[in-house]
């Protein structure tokens, strides 16, 4: 029997507008991509971004996910899932917060120091997905 691995290879975010999300992540955040792929296939349009080796971020229209997976479209709950991006220092947090803000992200928790010594902020992408940008001095 095949064993479920603890290695994640893709994180897929369901989006309302693939074009809008492509602009946010590619143009606003500077992530490299080949653009929208698979438009010739029903529910196939998708965008991929390479993260670390073996991990990709995929953007796929929510409507396509709903149809392909047989689940109903519902109102998304932004508190149900959050991605985190750890950075090298507190200045990097501030720099990235400015970059995502300029790209149109909503800053939902401005950068602040934490009681445990870290520093971070949280933003929402155009579809409301939460991203934490954080510096952890204990991981340096």
TrEMBL record:
Residues covered by the VOC domain: 7-136
Entry superkingdom: Bacteria
Entry-linked InterPro entries: Glyas_Bleomycin-R_OHBP_Dase, Glyas_Fos-R_dOase_dom, VOC_core
Signal peptide location: none
Protein name: Glyoxalase
Organism: Aliidiomarina iranensis
